[in-house]
Design a protein that fits this description.
Largest sheet: 4 strands, antiparallel
Order of helices and strands: EHHEHHEHHEEEHEHEHHHHEHHEHH
Structural class: alpha+beta
Distance between the termini: 23 Å
Amino acid sequence: MPEELSYLIITPYSLKKSRTGGIIARLLSRTDLELVAARILAPSQEFAENYAESLYQDISKRDKRSAKLYSNYVRNNFAPLENGKRERIMILLFKGDDACRKLYDIAGNLVQPVEKESVTGETIRDTYADYVLDRAGRIQYFEPAVLSPPNAEFSLQKLKYFASFASEQPNIVENIVREDEEREQTLAIIKPDNWRHPSTKPGNIIDMFSRTGLRIVGCKVFQMSVADALEFYGPVKEVLRKKLSPKIAEKAKEILEKELDFNISGSSLKKLEESVGMDFADSQFYQIVEFMSGRWPENLTEEEIADHGKVKCMILIYEGPHAISAIRTVLGPTDPSKAPGGTIRREFGHDVMVNTAHASDAPESVEREKKIVKIDQNSFSLVINEYLDKVGYKG
């Protein structure tokens, strides 16, 4: 069966309740699908109305009761609030064989009364959704947690509409912070080691970040080029040289003196520092670049240096009071072995190099890093449009 592109929407309520990480962990660990794009959107009134009507038209062909239930939910919960502030949704795009069915199965069904004996926690909706009736059979409360299309035909029109809407919206949503609340943003990266194979790790990391109570206001799946990685970690290069080159020179001196049975002078030690020491420090820096981009940076053409990297990461923008310090506290120090229990790096980091996630350390760093990862650009609409062209969908 040919590869499909499908979507899953995390609803405003699920985002507010910080269920995002748990949902993503379930999605990533239970399919062989590839997460190819992600986007935070703030729906307009028109978006909510159009999407609700589209759901009704599609679902009513099979079940008018469910069609009304879902369309009313979107209309009432996706639309902006009375004060003009917008809700947030997260849309995740997955690619792979039979993607629509696989995502739909993991999302789970939610059109019948939920009996206590039947709740297992197997699907996302088993865990996070609610469908409560009174004794007369009237719906008291309905929260689907996520929305996903049951088949490719159902999804194509929605994908085209999402791409069109997203292309006109900022990649970092605005107008969601209370007037009396401090507004600080920070940038976090879920690094490539978390994406090597299907795993709950990316979702678990997001879940731990959610302890801060901050809001996700922007996200993207990103393949860092060698050029991006060189710029992003550029300040680290001199730090490594100053820290490592003297140590390596001393170590080389000890080895040579023992092996050759003579004393190395201070001037020769300095030369060891400037040669072997610097080379070692630079190799450590290049390892970081390779880790983040999937390419060793030496001996590449200009085109290869600028091209998309071979590994992916996820960029997240958090917003709220003291966002920078809050995220870094949950993340923990660079060396996982020195990180306190309960921090992300203690739980998931391997060593100083493979330490699972990054977080900006100052407001200046946030702005610098946003530019390097091109936070104002998101491949979300491009991925959709390329897929629609591939399958010949005109809409």
